[in-house]
Amino acid sequence: MKKDLDSKKKTNEKNEVKVEKGQKVNNNEKKIKELKERIEELEKQLKDFENYARILKSQFENYKKDVAKEKEQITISTTGRIVEKFIPIIDDFKRAFVNAEEEIKNTKFFKGIELIYKNFMKVLKDLGLSELSVGEKFDPFEQEAVEKIMDEEKEEYTIIEVVEDGYKFRDRVIKPAKVKVTVKPRR
Question: What are the Cα distances from residue 120, in Å, to 83, 108, 167, 171?
Fold first, then answer.
């Protein structure tokens, strides 16, 4: 009888072990399944974060480009306003050179002033200032007609004299050239 009890105990222990092993296997399979699901979830989150990082990086690069463009535009605009303030000084220099007497034009002082003017103009040209070229035909976008002269022989709105030079800063007219133009007499 004792043998039977011992053998039953052993069988029960074996069965318990079997049950325990089965539970352990089931528990391990559950844990593996849960871990795989967690890994998939984390991989999805990683992809989401990578996409978000790419988008954020792209937006930041665009922001940097926009700021650089804006900074350049501000610099150009400010430089243009400063250069524009020098236009009356340029006109004064030109009037002084035209109205100077011949004996003054031959002095070292006058030559020095001419050199200063040339250097001044070079600096302004390097910044983007250019003198408007005046053709034969009147252009209302670049010129201002200060006087109309009646003439039947010449074509209407032909420029006959430039009174004051005009200037552009980059591609923007900051001072139109002042000109005299011809018009046909009215009958």
Answer: 11, 18, 15, 20
The answer to whether the CB of 185 falls within 8 A of the CB of 150 is yes
Question: To which residue do tokens 């105990």 refer?
Answer: 9
* β pairing state of 167-169 and 172-175: antiparallel
Residue 37 DSSP SS3: helix
Q: Which domain holds residue 187?
A: 130-187
Model confidence over 120-139: pLDDT tens digits? Answer: 999 999 999 999 888 788 88
Which among 129, 150, 141 is positioned nearest to 177, based on CA atoms? 141
Q: Tell me which of 4 and 172 has the higher pLDDT.
A: 172
Q: What CATH code is carried by the domain that includes residue 185?
A: 2.30.22.10
Same domain, 114 and 174: no
Alpha helices in 86-162 (DSSP H): 87-99, 102-105, 108-127
